Amino acid sequence: MKNSIKVISSGPMTLLQDLGRRGFEEYGVSVSGIADREAFNISNRLVFNKEDDTVIEIFFGDTSLNFFGNNIVAISGADLGAEINGIKCPINTSFVVPNDSIMNFHYPLEGIRSYLSVAGGMKTKKILGSRSMHVMSGIGNAPLKSGDIIPIGLSNSIKSGFSLKNYHRDLGVEIKKIGVILGQQVDRFGEDMIRIFFSKTYVVSDKSDRQGLRLEGETILTKNKDHDIISDPVVYGSIQIPGNGFPIILMPDTQTTGGYPKIGNVGKIYLDVLAQLKPGDKIKFFLITPDKSREEYLYKRSVIYKNELIRDVKIETCLVNGEDTIIGVNNNIAFTEDHAFLFSLLEEH
Description:
By secondary structure, this protein is of the alpha+beta class. The protein is built from five helices and 26 strands. The chain is elongated and about 85 Å long.
């Protein structure tokens, strides 16, 4: 049997995602795609996939997956308490999942969206050039459900046990600071409203989804209290101000046009921060320029793609069953010369 993953159970929203389907916005088709690009890029790089290879985006956990064949995987983004046979899986380190293993994602410990990449990528059918699942329209099929089989592509003979040198991501900051570029209709808001927008703390509403993060806090009103405009293009990160004055940050599954004034657009690297927010989380906006946003994005890409991949363990030669074996241990991961396993799995296999 070729390498594949069978869905045993699926949580609130378990999706196949890639970089989305671009070039169809004029027909009303959303780009969609991954919400947290940083986690997506990290997980794919750790298993030597292409940048646009499809991953599984697990939202809030409560998901069980059965692996067939020996697979090299990496998990990045949220810590949803992923385990195999009761052994916790590492975050941001590639490792081997042996044939017929079951991986369980439990519940959020930090962040809400976890990204699972598998060496070779997911090889389901593409629709309009992408495997991404757009929940509202159904384009790209429905969210994964029990019984679904996900074929895995062929991968070259690669090693595992890699992490990214000098990489750390803290998802536990109490108030997330979000950089914002002034928007297309910012002139519709008075200086007092713009000052409130950039000085007050907002709270993520429980009415948020992949289409938009709805915020609660100080209301923002236009100069003439008219919040209707002729619909114009919107993108992931556009910040609309509807008639009730509560900001809406558009997310990956956003529509392609909108009829509310946009006070700002979220800087590219801060979209990844938004992707990990849950209801009740707090954010505060600060002003950035387009040039600063681009500079930050290019720096983040350089960290992901230019920093060295390392195996963070001291490998030593040990005598096992009368033979020299190269092995090392770091927390619950056992390293051989070529691969990394969850420790108890190495003993069993």
